[in-house]
């Protein structure tokens, strides 16, 4: 197998730049889904159920995209980019529909159903657009540069997150309405989704213009596989899982605890901050109608942006560690401390500190698992393996979403305690890093 050449910085940058736009869309979803469905009339104890769809669609879509793209080659477009474009185009359409779920004079049940269907399609298309970026780095970057390349990707992901998280606050600040009739999502949120959709498609078009994927012969040479197998060989997911290196499963264990924590953060931060800082009683169904709840929702965007800034900074620190395992465990422990500290903070500005700390865990979760795994894989079936590995992201979120309402009841229906549970989950993840062997190969 011929060693892939080192890439210049801007080529590595271009490989992941489109992820900036995709992540704006994902950030808008992450920061506003609980707010949107609470505004439409959902009960707080049922909010976590709406969060089943994002990981469920990822569990279905990403392995399919990975496997199909392994066997795809379109001379003018490439291997992964066709799926990126189709996913981005679909996401743009759905982003114009989802926040308007309460604007069509549906009943509460009808608005929730419309929102649920739109969310399903948004998750499908975002996952379809997201997966190719992880595979492009695996395809085109050598082992020496992979940690750096995934850190650059983490930087761009978090930069996109900052924009997406800040949009509702920004639009409210410039005078776009932050309140609306009962059951209707405020214009500040709707306009945010429109802006995010426009940036998404522009960033993806930039990627299509700048990135030229390896043709089959070159791909085969750099990945040590027969050219005919690059496109034609069929893969069985069960067989691939049986042949997966040990690191696939050990990193997957860490992923289970990390993504459980972040699912709880996305689901319950809005209610937690409304309770702990604004003094909103989120136990009654009409709490989402209160201006204080919507103000808290805008501030959650600020906090998530602070988290993303922390992740951006930490993404540049991670490659400085000599040990990936040490970087991984320290990052998760700092994030755990941030989650637990949020319980004791009642000032909205002081919350910047714990959320910046949470950003360290987020940066590591985005960068290190894929750097460790792709170095343990050959180029053969790389996309399929990365798609299957997405199950270690999706399954814990599905489990956490199913159990969220039960756990919320166990902690007295106070959403702030769900952040403490998230911190405990990250501590378990940091302990699980000890089982990871970064030298595994197949």
Largest sheet: none
Count of discrete structural domains: 1
Give the beta-strand count: 0
Mean pLDDT: 85
First-last Cα distance:
14 Å
Q: What is the CATH fold-level name?
A: Growth Hormone, Chain: A
The amount of beta strand, in percent, is under 5%
CATH architecture heading: Up-down Bundle
Radius of gyration: 21 Å
Low-confidence stretches: 228-233
Number of helices: 17
Fraction of residues in H or I helices: over 70%
CATH homologous superfamily designation: MFS general substrate transporter like domains
Order of helices and strands: HHHHHHHHHHHHHHHHH
Instruction: Name the structural class.
Output: mainly alpha
Apparent shape: globular
CATH C-level class is Mainly Alpha
Description:
This protein is an all-alpha fold and 442 residues long. The protein has one domain (9-435): Growth Hormone, Chain: A. Helices cover 73% and strands 0% of the residues. It has 17 helices and no strands. It has helices spanning 9-40, 47-50, 53-70, 81-95, 108-140, 143-173, 187-210, 216-223, 227-232, 237-243, 246-276, 291-317, 324-341, 352-374, 382-389, 391-410, 416-432. Helix 3 runs parallel beside helix 5, helix 6 runs antiparallel to helix 14 and helix 11 (246-276) packs parallel to helix 16.
In a few lines, what is going on in this structure?
The protein has about 450 residues and is mainly alpha-helical. The chain has one domain (about 10-435): MFS general substrate transporter like domains (Growth Hormone, Chain: A, Up-down Bundle), CATH 1.20.1250.20.
């Amino acid at each position: 197998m011929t060693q892939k050449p080192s890439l210049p910085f801007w080529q590595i940058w271009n490989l992941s730049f489109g992820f900036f736009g995709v992540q704006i869309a994902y950030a808008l979803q992450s920061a506003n889904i609980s707010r949107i469905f609470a505004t439409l009339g959902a009960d707080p104890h049922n909010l976590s159920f709406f969060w089943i769809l994002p990981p469920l669609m990822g569990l279905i879509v990403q392995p399919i995209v990975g496997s199909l793209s392994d066997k795809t080659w379109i001379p003018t477009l490439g291997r992964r980019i066709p799926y990126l474009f189709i996913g981005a185009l679909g996401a743009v359409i759905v982003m114009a529909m989802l926040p308007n779920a309460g604007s069509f004079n549906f009943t509460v049940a009808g608005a929730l159903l419309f929102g649920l269907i739109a969310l399903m399609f948004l998750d499908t298309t975002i996952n379809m657009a997201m997966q190719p970026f992880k595979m492009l780095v695996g395809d085109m970057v050598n082992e020496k540069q992979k940690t750096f390349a995934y850190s650059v990707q983490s930087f761009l992901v978090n930069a996109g997150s900052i924009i997406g998280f800040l949009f509702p606050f920004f639009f409210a600040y410039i005078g776009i309405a932050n309140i609306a009739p009962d059951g209707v999502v405020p214009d500040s949120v709707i306009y945010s989704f429109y802006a995010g959709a426009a940036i998404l498609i522009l960033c993806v078009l930039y990627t299509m213009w700048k990135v030229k994927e390896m043709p089959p012969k070159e791909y085969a040479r750099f990945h040590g596989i027969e050219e005919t197998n690059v496109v034609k060989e069929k893969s069985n997911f069960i067989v691939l899982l049986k042949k997966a290196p040990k690191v696939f499963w050990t990193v997957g264990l860490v992923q289970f605890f990390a993504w459980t924590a972040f699912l709880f953060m996305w689901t319950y931060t809005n209610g937690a901050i409304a309770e702990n800082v604004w003094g909103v009683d989120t136990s009654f169904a009409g709490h989402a109608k209160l201006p204080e709840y919507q103000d808290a929702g805008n501030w959650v965007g600020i906090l998530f942006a602070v988290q993303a800034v922390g992740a951006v900074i930490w993404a540049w620190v991670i490659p400085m560690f000599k040990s990936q395992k040490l970087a991984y465990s320290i990052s998760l422990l700092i994030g755990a401390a941030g989650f637990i500290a949020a319980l004791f903070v009642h000032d909205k500005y002081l919350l910047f500190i714990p959320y910046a700390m949470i950003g360290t865990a987020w940066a590591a979760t985005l960068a290190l698992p894929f750097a460790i795994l792709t170095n343990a894989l050959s180029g053969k079936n790389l996309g399929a393996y990365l798609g299957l590995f997405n199950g270690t992201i999706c399954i814990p979120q599905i489990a956490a979403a199913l159990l969220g309402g039960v756990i919320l009841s166990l902690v007295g229906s106070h959403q702030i305690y769900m952040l403490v549970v998230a911190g405990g989950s990250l501590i378990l993840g940091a302990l699980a890093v000890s089982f990871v062997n970064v030298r595994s190969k197949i």
